What does this fold into?
Amino acid sequence: MLTPIGKVVSVEDDISVIEVLPEYVEGLYRIELLKELDVLFVFDHSQGFDLHVHPRGDANIPLTGVFGTRSPRRPNRIGLTRVRLLERKGDRLKVKGLDAFLDTPVLDIKGVMSKGFSWDPAECRKTVKRPVVRRVHK
It folds into this structure.
């Protein structure tokens, strides 16, 4: 059985806030050192599933097996989105790019280790003290 560790408490355009339950907040320790996170959540608004779907719900795209798509209508209703971590304040993470609705249960959060990332304490201190420069790739 999967137990949610939190939920989505705010969604505005492409920016969302995840609130982590009190018993899991310590699991956020030093998460602000990361730029990206993988967020696993429940497609709690989705009912049933189809093994063949039109990707993005577009009938002009040929039917494709559900496991080759990002359809929310899946046998196990588990969603996964890679997000950019914008900010951590206590039990809340402000992220960009989360593909989930308000009040969506969050099952897990996994750090994405970018190229050149180091857990070395000296490097981490440098990372925390320097302003974060976010590049937008178009």
The longest strand covers residues 78-89. The mean pLDDT is 87. Helices lie at 121-129.
